[in-house]
Design goal:
heterodimer; A: five-stranded parallel β-sheet; B: alpha/beta; Rossmann fold; 2 domains; 17 helices; 24 strands; 34% helix; 26% strand; disordered C terminus
């Protein structure tokens, strides 16, 4: 079981991911913007972060940048979610390990989470 | 807020920003006021979300920055999928010029004050000059009281002004969209989008219910949602209440393409006039129009605008008759536009006709015919007004027009005023000239006749002339003698009690002629 942080401003997305990932035996915590997400990363020390790209207050790019600059958080893997094409996101965001295009299928979320968590274990082990 | 200097004695005027939707900007006389709030209301499916997105993308395309904030609306991913194929969509605008964020979690957690704070912060942080808030009704439901909601609108208005940001609040209008709500009284502009059933089809229209500080075109305006997004067609008769140019009476003549007919009407049709070709189906009105357009030259360009026959059919017909129209069509001297009467709106058709006329510098128009226009009218009372407006504008554009109308009976008798089926507008409003086409039945054969009923500023030969449609087109008798002989003989032939008259009834000129 892993602890996963989902950061998304959209009604429904966070709740959906909480249910899907909980059913896969993970512990899920939610944040609704990048600023709240940074606090949750610091407080909860999650194993993985699903991070929305466009959000109010602090967007995904801003949160990812701040996380990468903090040595205590930098190693936590991040998967970016967006309705935009991956290339468009890659031009602006750096330091994420995976990408999920919205709208997504549930299996995609589970697969990408499994890969990211496995990679994280390898690198830490 | 930016203001433009104004002449002495007048206050400063607020700047407007075009919406980028041409017809809407015409209705709004230039666009939305900068720093103002507009409510866009309509039932689900009315087109609010597409309009909101189109406003954002258009604003971004013009160099602005737009923020699209959703409350309880569809997910951004689904929304972008839905609008992704529309012409205004440019993925490159997102996220640097156009940002999608959801404010519902904030609304849920912190209430309407939290929403207001978020909107202020995001507009400021993104330097947004357009904000769309999709799902205002959710904010209204969350507000503790009417007063709190009014304060929300009031404070948002103040922020829109201070930030010089145009704000659009999209709402389904609550439980009863017909009720004028407090927020309507507080905002600068209210637009309602509607979809109405007309028989089996649905027509869309919008109305500006309120606009502060400037005029606008009142009434309902048709719009269409297509791959281009929203296309708005300002109400034709309001748009052109005054023709775009001064009308002038031209002294020159335009040949009909039929020399004998030209002789009957004083040497051809007066230029910049409108002629009604009135007669039964199958008598040859369209063929007359093809002769008329065969007279076109690169300097005297033509347009065939029809509701019944497609361009290929028209070309085949012209080819079969050996008319020069074929070459004109091939060389682009004459354009043929075909509009089936199934889905389009009347305002759209009239706009399309005038756009083609202006763009091509058309001087000869053949419109086939008024029946198609009448079929498109959602309100029969509008037809007369629209035709009058159209005729005035065509005159102002110096276009010589032939317009067909089917008479109410198969032979084309004249017992009723020719335009009786038009709910409004007399014949004199619509046509400068009227040419009547009638069949005369003599024994087993139908004969075709044409007569000039009226022609502006002309001495006309009022007698009917026989004409035939030959393999080389229409041939009109130079003399009325054959027609006269057939009329006399037909009048004398025995009739059965239920047979239609073989000769036209006594002509009754419509009132005012």
């Amino acid at each position: 079981m892993a602890k996963i942080l989902v950061v998304d401003d959209e009604f429904g997305i966070g709740e959906l991911l909480r249910e899907v990932l909980s059913d896969d035996d993970h512990q899920v915590v939610l944040a609704i913007n990048g600023r709240q997400g940074l606090q949750m990363v610091a407080n909860e020390q999650p194993d993985l972060v699903f991070l929305d790209f466009m959000m109010p207050v602090l967007n995904g790019v801003g949160m990812l940048k701040a996380k990468m600059e903090d040595p205590n958080m930098a190693q936590i893997p991040v998967i970016i979610m967006s309705s935009l094409p991956e290339a468009s996101v890659a031009e602006r965001a750096h330091g994420h390990v995976g990408f999920v295009r919205k709208p997504f299928q549930i299996n995609t979320i589970l697969d990408v989470a499994a890969v990211a968590l496995a990679g994280s274990k390898k690198s830490s082990g | 807020m930016s203001q433009t200097p104004s002449p002495p004695g007048n206050g400063p005027r607020l700047e407007k920003t075009p919406s980028g939707i041409e017809g809407l900007d015409v209705i709004l006389r230039g666009g939305f006021l900068q720093g103002g709030i507009t409510i866009v209301q309509g039932k689900p499916g009315a087109g609010k979300t597409i309009l909101g997105n189109q406003l954002c993308f258009n604003h971004a395309a013009a160099g602005g920055r737009a923020l699209y904030v959703t409350l309880l609306a569809e997910s951004h991913a689904r929304m972008l999928l839905h609008i992704g194929n529309l012409a205004f969509f440019r993925s490159s605008a997102i996220p640097d010029q156009l940002l999608y964020v959801s404010a519902f979690p904030v609304l849920e957690a912190d209430g309407i004050r939290g929403l207001l704070a978020l909107l202020r912060r995001e507009v400021s942080a993104f330097n947004a000059t357009v904000l769309v808030l999709d799902g205002l009704v959710a904010a209204e439901k969350v507000a503790a009281s009417d007063m709190e909601f009014k304060k929300f609108i009031h404070e948002l208005q103040a922020h829109a002004t201070a930030a010089n940001c145009q704000m659009f609040l999209l709402t389904s209008g609550g439980d009863n969209p017909d009720v004028v709500t407090a927020e309507h009284t507080m905002v600068d502009c209210v637009i309602e989008l509607r979809s109405r059933l007309r028989g089996w089809r649905a027509d869309r229209d919008l109305e500006i219910l309120k606009r502060r500080g400037d005029g606008f075109l009142r009434g309902r305006h048709a719009f269409r949602i297509s791959d281009a997004g929203l296309t708005v067609f300002p109400r034709f008769e309001a748009l052109l209440a005054t023709p775009t140019n001064a009308e002038r009476v031209e002294k020159t003549r335009a040949s009909t393409g039929l020399a004998q007919l030209d002789d009957m009407i004083g040497g051809g049709l007066p230029r910049a006039s409108t002629t009604l070709l009135l007669g039964p189906s199958g008598i040859g009105k369209t063929t007359v129009g093809m002769h008329f357009l065969s007279q076109c030259t690169p300097e005297d360009r033509g347009l065939f605008f029809g509701f019944y026959e497609d361009p290929a059919g028209i070309r085949d017909k012209a080819m079969a008759l050996g008319l020069p129209l074929v070459n004109h069509l091939d060389q682009g001297v004459v354009e043929c536009l075909w509009q089936p009467t199934t889905e389009a709106s009347l305002d759209e058709i009239c706009a399309q006709l005038l756009i083609a006329t202006r763009a091509r510098g058309v001087r000869r128009l053949f419109l086939d015919g008024l029946g198609g226009i009448a079929k498109l009218a959602d309100d029969p009372e509008r037809v007369g007004h629209i035709l009058t407006t159209l005729v005035h504008e065509l005159r102002a554009l110096h276009v010589t027009s032939l317009v067909t109308k089917e008479s109410d009976d198969l032979l084309g008798s004249l017992g009723v005023p020719p335009a009786s089926s038009l709910a409004a507008g007399s014949v004199s409003d619509i046509a400068d000239n009227i040419l009547l086409f009638q069949f005369i039945r003599l024994r087993s054969r139908l004969h075709r006749t044409v007569s000039a009923f009226k022609v502006r500023d002309s001495r006309i030969d009022e007698q009917a002339h026989l004409f035939e449609i030959t393999p080389h087109g229409i041939v009109v008798d130079a003399s009325p003698d054959r027609a006269e002989a057939i009329f006399v003989e037909a009048a004398a032939q025995p009739r059965t009690p239920d047979s239609p008259p073989s000769t036209p009834a006594q002509v009754q000129r419509p009132q005012g002629e």
